[in-house]
Amino acid sequence: MSERVIPLVDQRHPSLPLPTLMAGQDLSTLPLDGLRRPLTDLRISVTDRCNFRCSYCMPKEVFDKDYAYLPHSHLLSFEEITRIATVFVGRGVRKIRLTGGEPLLRKNIEILIEQLAALRTPDGQPLDLTLTTNGSLLARKAQSLKDAGLQRVTVSLDGLDDAVFRKMNDVDFPVADVLAGIEAARAAGLGPIKVNMVVKRGTNEHEILPMARHFRGTGIVLRFIEYMDVGATNGWCMDEVLPSAEVIRRLQTELPLVQLDPSVPGETAERWGYANAQGEFDSALGEVGVISSVTQAFCGDCNRARLSTEGRLYLCLFASQGYDLRQLLRDPTQNDHTLAQTVDAIWRGRTDQYSVLRGLRGPDMASGPGRRVEMSYIGG
Ligand code: SAM
Ligand code: SF4
Ligand code: SF4
Asked: Which ligand is nearest to the CA of 34?
């Protein structure tokens, strides 16, 4: 099949220069960044393409038929991804999330999952291996993903009302098919399943309570995400953000909640458990989460790095430039030791804390200088 190659002139900014390595750079301790945060979580984008056009992520007007997606030769191969993932595991990563674009569109993704599922931490433990999907192909793929070694999935779902959902994905995709995907994931044992709902004021805020009622008591954790100022194409404005505190307030009008402790350090979601008649957390009813990426900065514990589809390492979701690791992966003179030293040096130089700064400087920072990469390219 011939592939149309369009010159890349858009969001993919020049990469940052790779750090110069010191002779004999020591790998005996795991790296901490400039704010003393460890590197434990790696998100890998396996494609920049998607079959949805969620307006907050890949608006139709920008991601149209002329949009210059990456040509196949620019994508990291499965072998390259597995090699760099192995290096990251050696430098402290314990959790890998596959994302995109829509990761289930990447051909033979099960092969990559098999390779990643076989990785072990230095003390012999398997990784926490998960994937974020829009759920459109999940009914078809849940069992093969499980068989390949995937542990769990997070499914994005912005409402239960079919008309609202079709409008938000903007390709007229029916909600019933995503619900069938979630059911297939549950039947295949891809749990605990999380469902992410991006809340946009004026668009799907009335779906908060129906979504909570639907998933309460099912073992599926519903998480409400504040609409974020990622990328440069979604026309973000603060007026469309519904603060998490307001989400919790609205839930509480009908479904009493109690706040729960974080389950792991660096957790992005604040956890709230459904309460019983005595006002205590009832584990049979389960919990919800809120991810307050706009109104409450959680950079202090941010242990996440992101690898773009073409092998650039981004240190923050709101970064405008990344480090080109593909260049090293494709250079026969570079070995895994140099790769590890490079990853260490990059991580040690990290000082990113965009949300904290946005909190200090105000929402206008979202439209300020330094165009950010798109979430579909860097991965959510
Ligand atoms: N296509 C997959 C999906 O939708 O689950 C994976 C990639 S998507 C970029 C990852 C996550 O980012 C999704 O849960 C999506 O809802 C979220 N996301 C995308 N744009 C966002 C925005 N502007 N604000 C908040 N969340 C966003
Ligand atoms: Fe596609 Fe996910 Fe972005 Fe929606 S959020 S457009 S499903 S990549
Ligand atoms: Fe991490 Fe950047 Fe998000 Fe802060 S803004 S939590 S540093 S990804």
From this structure: 3
Indicate if the pLDDT at residue 52 is higher than 80: yes
Phi, psi angles (nearest 5°) of residue 41: -130, 125
Q: What is the DSSP letter of 13?
A: P
Does residue 159 have its Cβ closer than 6 Å to ligand 1? no
Let me know: does 197 contact 207? Beta carbons within 8 Å: yes
Whose CA is closest to atom 4 on ligand 3? 299
pLDDT at 118: 98
**227 ligand 1 Cβ < 6 A:** yes
Structure pTM?
0.94
Cα(349) to centroid of ligand 2, in Å?
A: 31
CA 110 to CA 106: how far, in whole Å?
Answer: 9
Domains of the chain: 41-378 (3.20.20.70)
Residue 129, token pair as written in the block? 């291996």
Determine whether the shortest distance from the Cβ of 133 to ligand 1 is under 6 A: yes
Q: Which residues contact 205 (CB under 8 A, 6 or more apart)?
A: 199, 242
Q: Pick the closest to residue 173 from 215, 213, 137, 141 (CA basis).
A: 137
Give the list of residues 6+ apart from residue 141 with CB closer than 8 angstroms, or none: 104, 110
Residue 176's CB: how many other CB atoms inside 10 A?
11
Q: Could you report the per-residue pLDDT of 233-267, keeping only the tens digit for each?
A: 778 889 999 999 999 999 999 999 999 998 887 68
Query: Is residue 261 classed exposed, middle or buried when 0-12, 13-18 and 19+ CB atoms within 10 A define those classes?
Result: exposed
Question: Is it true that the peptide bond before 192 is cis, omega within 30 degrees of 0?
Answer: yes
First to last CA, the chain: 30
